Amino acid sequence: APRARSAGSQRASVSLRGGPRRAAARATAPNTSHATEAFARLSLVRRQLAAAVQDEDYARAAALRDERTSLLEGLPARLQFCVARLEAMKDEEASLAARCEAAQALGNIGDAALIASELAAWLSRAEGEPTALVEAVEAALWAQWMHPPEMHPDAAALGVAMERGCAHLAAPGGVELDQAVEVFSDVIREVPTFAEAINKRATALYLMGELRRAAADCKTVLALNPAHFGAASGMGMCLLRLGRVEEAKAAFETALAANPSLGAIRQYVSAIERAEAQQQE
């Protein structure tokens, strides 16, 4: 039977029109390849600098420090800010409050294409880090993943659509899940590589009991964003309910590799392992 809709609700699609405006937007969108390459090089230089200092190779450290300064000066102001916030977040000598504030700032204004990978890499190695900081980085990652592609000419409309879809997803009693699927599907048609739109649709499908479709969406998300611990966890839940226990365990382990702090997922893995041990007795 079809699911109930809210009174007065209507199909909430993404209103995205083609034509000269979008073509012009694409033509005038800034080329970010140089910034991307510089940011990647900066990340490498940061690691090399730390290694040089640890090895007491001060001549190399000085050269790397000069290169880092030059790379920073060549970045757009926004990315310079992001680099500063990343370093503040990772600074173990800073206060916990300052590190959490830096993570929150990255979630609010960080460049999704560049900063999310840095946050995900930190989170994958965050076992033993303060819980508050881990939670702040998780929240920043979710915020980053929700950002539509910045260079898309209709990024603002896509952002509004994502918020609308999430509102349908959160409606009490699950009465607007079909509308959530419609909205997220509209976004996906416009931007097939927008991983978080696919992940949110997977969540709605899971709640509707469409487990195979949800698992397929989770698989697509992980192909686009291997660090997406939410999609890996969701795939595990789908497979577990489908009785595909070993595949579910593998998905849960993928989630834990990306985010070791997922206590509930770790409990699922432990429960599966206990059941396996009992079967072998």
Write up this protein:
This protein is mostly helical and 281 residues long. The protein folds into two domains: 32-146, no CATH class; 155-280, Serine Threonine Protein Phosphatase 5, Tetratricopeptide repeat. 73% of the residues lie in helices and 0% in strands. It is globular. The chain starts with 19 loop residues before the first helix and ends with a helix. The model is unreliable at 1-13 and 17-31 (pLDDT under 50).
Shape: globular
Please name the CATH architecture of the largest domain: Alpha Horseshoe
Radius of gyration, CA atoms, in whole angstroms: 22 Å
C-alpha end-to-end distance? 45 Å
GO cellular component, one term: TRC complex
Keywords: Repeat, TPR repeat
GO biological process, one term: post-translational protein targeting to endoplasmic reticulum membrane
Pfam family, one: TPR_19
Write a concise keyword list for the protein shown above.
single chain; 281 residues; mainly alpha; Serine Threonine Protein Phosphatase 5, Tetratricopeptide repeat; 2 domains; 73% helix; 0% strand; disordered N terminus; molecular adaptor activity
